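Listing S7. Sequence submitted for prediction.
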Amino acid sequence: MNLKIIITLIMLCVFVNISYAECTLAHTHIGVNPTWRPDWSDPGNPSKATDSDLTDNDKLWFFSLPPVHDAATPGWPNWEQANGDVFLQLVPVLESGSPIMKGDASGKQLWTCQFMYSKSNGYGDPSGTQHLDGWHSAHGPQGKWNLESVDQSTTPQWDIYLKREGTSVVSDDFFMLLPNDTPVLIADADTYQLDKAWLSDKNAWGIHEHMSFNFWLTPDIGQEVTATFSAYDASGMYTASDNFEMAFVTVPEPASLLLIGLGAIPLLRNREKKCNA
């Protein structure tokens, strides 16, 4: 299988007709102040918030979809179930109904993280939020997790980078893809600069980067794999995050995704998505 075709199929699966102002894609959030917590029953009330460590206000951290989101992650702030089990699902990428093979003697096929989920109806909810795609700056309760933003005319000092810390699979069996078909974070210790942009929907400077999570794995259902990341600020304004491990499990391909393949390109190009940061 030609690498260009493989990348195109993944892009169709994840990035078709994305609007950066509105899309139904879930992102991993990057913010500061990892030990500050609102009272989720009244998140805008400062008197009910707690902070177990006042010395980490400028430390970066990652988190999943918070409890007030329509697709809240059960084990927030991690991407996991409430009991710690794996939450993120991998499905096989298909070409005309057949799996895409790695092209060596390993027998591995291509899997990508794509599934629908909502807090009310769980996995497979067609009106839920599509997981998982890239990274977004935190814009949380009371602004306590937000990266600095003054106004649209003042470019912030911070300069956030992702670093791939490791994976549970062979190094080249995990990679990420940008919407422009570029593979990134393809080896441990690789870094990627997250562009800062004025986000009109947030009325603030922040980050909004689309990127898919992809693995070469055997066809077996129930495989659990991990990828670990950190974030650092090249400007020195913020201190580096702790490592953030994301666990995934292979599941059968949902019937709704069997259309992915060369014959489905016209249909997929007509789909519209919205983006829930």
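Caption to Listing S7: primary sequence and predicted structure tokens for the chain studied. The mean pLDDT is 87. Residues 3-14 form the longest helix (12 residues).
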